[in-house]
Design a protein that fits this description.
By secondary structure, the chain is α+β, with helices and mostly antiparallel strands. The protein is built from 13 helices and nine strands. The N terminus is likely disordered.
């Protein structure tokens, strides 16, 4: 019985995912399902273990063994059923979907606008912005501001501002732990006291939209010291493509943890540009009121050394 279960682990996983279409599960959640669904097989598998191979002397050890086996059989699982998909994020998420990569992105884009629509349980893109702000504030102490493209003047005509505006911008105070005399001296010497960040946010990245999203970030983050693409969900093989593009253009990638935003992480650090491209920043300022306010906040910091928290995005604890 143990050998039958071991040989058919892929079948068990496949059946479970197919029975729960479009629902995502970690390998541990699937392993816990197997443990509860097949108690007799699990007990026999435990009994058959020995010191020569592996000792499954507890429920925790047995479940962990299933987790490892599911991970190791991932390529075969997907080869046997191409509709089984696995995210690149950690922990990996396994799910069954008949939608193509294009269909997944199209569906998300329809439901991810800034228009609040409670008819879908999916997170909208605008719901990710505060989560990103929490992560950036808690991890790096930087101040963020949402840039609403709808507030643009569109003086350039139809699609004149295409890929011009990032979703979120931020200011990092490099002198926050400096003595006042040091920061004042650095300011007089025109040394850099801040770094400016730019973020393009997507609900999901997969092979269908990763290149377009990346070059959108390249376009609207060219003015900043750091440019990042951000996503809460990343499809199989997408991270590899992001690393290739990073080598050419230097835009980093942040995996947003929607369950616990402070535990989000930079998977690909952006390459720093020492100087801000103020000509490009000026174009954004002419077109968008939110970006005007952002530049005003930066100017105020340089003039006074103070940061008025109310001028930046609110960060909920």
């Amino acid at each position: 019985m143990v050998k039958i279960l071991a040989l058919n682990l892929r079948k068990v996983v496949n059946e479970y995912l197919v029975a729960n279409p479009d629902s995502m599960f970690t390998a541990r959640q699937i392993a816990e399902y197997i443990f509860s669904k097949y108690p007799q097989e699990c007990e026999e598998k435990r009994k058959s273990s020995n010191a020569k191979v592996i000792v499954l002397d507890s429920d925790t050890a047995l479940i962990q063994q299933f987790v490892a086996e599911i991970g190791s059989q991932r390529p075969r699982l997907q080869k046997a059923n191409p509709s089984i998909k696995v995210t690149d994020s950690r922990p990996r998420l396994y799910y069954f979907s008949t939608k193509s990569d294009d269909d997944e992105i199209t569906e998300l884009e329809k439901s991810s606008s800034d228009i609040k629509d409670d008819s879908s349980n999916r997170l909208k893109e605008y719901e990710l912005y505060p989560m990103l702000a929490v992560y950036l504030s808690s991890e790096y102490g930087i101040y963020t501001k949402r840039i609403d493209e709808k507030k643009s003047s569109n003086m350039q005509g139809y699609k004149g501002n295409h890929w011009l505006f990032p979703d979120v911008v931020a200011m990092e105070n490099l002198s926050k732990e400096w003595h006042k005399e040091v920061s004042d001296t650095a300011k007089l010497n025109s040394d850099k006291l801040i770094r400016l960040w730019s973020f393009e946010v997507k609900t999901k990245l997969n092979r269908s939209n990763v290149r377009e999203a990346y070059f959108q970030a390249v376009s609207n983050s060219s003015w900043a010291n750091f440019g990042y693409l951000v996503a809460s969900d990343i499809g199989d093989s997408t991270l590899k493509e992001l690393r290739i593009l990073y080598g050419l253009h230097g835009i980093g990638f942040i995996k947003l943890n929607i369950e616990n935003p402070p535990e989000s992480e930079i998977l690909i650090p952006a390459k720093e540009k020492f100087d801000v491209d103020w000509n490009t920043a000026n174009r954004l300022t002419k077109e968008n009121k939110d970006f005007v306010d952002f530049v005003k906040n930066v100017r105020q910091f340089y003039q006074t050394g103070d940061i008025k928290i109310s001028d930046w995005d609110k960060v909920d604890a």
